[in-house]
């Protein structure tokens, strides 16, 4: 066991425990909803779920990562985290305001095209984005200060509350997708309250942090983050747009994706501590430590991906019916393509963090852009809708991972930067982030 723990970065176990509960909550959430809702209502919930975790994670994980990165760097210099939290909160609020205004402006179109005319689901979408903005900003502080038990605690409370709330909804016989969506608002907000003590201790103290410390790499980081979520989540939305009447496939695909992406939840427990490690070794120029951590991480996620793939192909078609009451529209071939996409996506996640630690934000954004272009090309090809979105996920992920590997070969040598000013030295690293 000690040898196994030595393969992963510090903090993985603490974060992994919370993430395990949060991951379990996702399965319970969708399982109870699948057994309680009609196919049409479950399809609406599936679309809400996909939008929240595409757009919300896409824009707020970069805020968490940049806050964590700057807090971690200042911590090594004995500087307080308060000014970073203040800037991060203002930044998250500004991004949230833009998203809310855009959602309100498209209220009727979103309700009609994605939620079968149910405008209340659009309001739940807005509430979910608000909750994510608050949660990810506070997680940035916890990660940057290496308070991984608190970080894992926030994830665990979020997951635990989701389980309790959806269980109560199921026992009460609630059959409206609205209330299953509201869980995505209440649980993360309550988890933030649980972790307020260390966050409040970080408030105040020190001179304001220059905006450049957070903004210098944020634009490209946000592009990469959004595109990465498009690759992994857009399939369900595409099914709804390409075949509006095929509510069975949209719901079944979300259930299948939740199963095959179990390794991604496990990787999330590594991510919050892996990224500071890569950034630190890159900053100090410790090439052996950088490449050693990168190789170990790739080995771990490859093992996770292969184990998950075998389980998904063998048991996936049966599990989605048994756990989520999903329609019997996907077979083992479908699960094979989805599992292949997940394995390649895991490689891309690790390689992408290595690029960021080497100050190569543009290279990472380029790789995700090429991946999304490949995904769109496959999605628009003439073929059955389900097969198109599955192949698009696999091909898009492979293109991203392959591009990143080539880019890393062209410049993977960490360069020490001990003499640079703190704002410059930390401007292009990365830290934290979890679904």
Automatic annotation (TrEMBL):
Parts of the chain that traverse the membrane: 46-63, 84-109, 121-138, 150-172, 178-196, 217-241, 247-267, 298-324, 336-358, 365-385, 391-408
Classification via InterPro entries: Poly_Biosynth_Transport
Membrane topology per record: Multi-pass membrane protein
Keyword Protein biosynthesis: no
Alphabetically ordered keywords of this record: Cell membrane, Membrane, Transmembrane, Transmembrane helix
Signal peptide segment: none
A single GO cellular-component term on record: plasma membrane
Subcellular location(s) per record: Cell membrane
Primary location recorded for the protein, binned into one broad class: membrane
Name of protein: Membrane protein involved in the export of O-antigen and teichoic acid
Natural source organism: Micromonospora echinaurantiaca
């Amino acid at each position: 066991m000690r040898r196994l723990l030595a393969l992963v970065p510090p903090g993985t176990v603490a974060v992994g425990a919370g993430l395990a509960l949060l991951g379990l909550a996702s399965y319970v959430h969708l399982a109870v909803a699948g057994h309680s809702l009609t196919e049409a209502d479950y399809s609406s919930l599936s679309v809400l779920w996909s939008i929240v975790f595409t757009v919300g994670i896409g824009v707020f994980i970069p805020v968490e990562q940049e806050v964590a990165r700057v807090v971690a760097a200042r911590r090594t210099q004995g500087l307080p985290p308060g000014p970073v939290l203040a800037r991060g909160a203002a930044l998250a609020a500004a991004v949230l305001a833009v998203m809310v205004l855009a959602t309100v402006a498209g209220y009727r179109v979103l309700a009609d095209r994605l939620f079968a005319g149910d405008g209340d689901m659009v309001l739940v979408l807005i509430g979910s984005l608000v909750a994510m903005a608050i949660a990810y900003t506070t997680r940035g502080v916890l990660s940057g200060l290496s308070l991984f038990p608190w970080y894992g605690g926030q994830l665990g409370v979020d997951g635990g509350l989701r389980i309790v709330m959806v269980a109560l909804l199921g026992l009460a016989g609630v059959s409206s997708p609205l209330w299953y969506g509201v869980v995505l608002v209440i649980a993360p907000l309550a988890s933030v309250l649980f972790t307020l003590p260390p966050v409040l201790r970080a408030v105040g103290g020190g001179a304001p942090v220059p905006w450049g410390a957070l903004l210098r790499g944020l634009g490209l980081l946000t592009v990469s983050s959004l595109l990465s979520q498009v690759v992994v989540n857009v399939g369900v939305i595409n099914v709804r747009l390409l075949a509006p009447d095929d509510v069975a496939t949209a719901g079944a695909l979300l259930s299948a994706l939740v199963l095959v992406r179990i390794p991604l939840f496990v990787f999330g427990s590594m991510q919050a501590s892996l990224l500071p490690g890569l950034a630190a070794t890159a900053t100090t120029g410790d090439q052996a430590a950088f490449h050693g951590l990168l190789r170990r991480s790739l080995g771990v996620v490859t093992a996770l991906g292969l184990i998950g793939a075998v389980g998904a192909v063998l048991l996936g078609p049966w599990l989605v019916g048994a756990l989520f009451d999903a329609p019997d529209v996907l077979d083992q071939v479908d699960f094979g393509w989805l599992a292949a996409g997940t394995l390649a996506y895991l490689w891309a996640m690790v390689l992408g963090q290595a690029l960021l630690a080497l100050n190569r934000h543009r290279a990472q954004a380029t790789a995700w852009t090429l991946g999304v272009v490949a995904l769109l090309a496959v999605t628009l090809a003439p073929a059955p809708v389900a097969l198109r979105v599955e192949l698009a996920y696999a091909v898009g992920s492979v293109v991203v991972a392959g591009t990143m590997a080539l880019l890393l070969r062209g410049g993977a040598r960490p360069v020490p930067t001990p003499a640079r000013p703190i704002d410059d030295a930390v401007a292009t690293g990365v830290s934290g982030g979890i679904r």
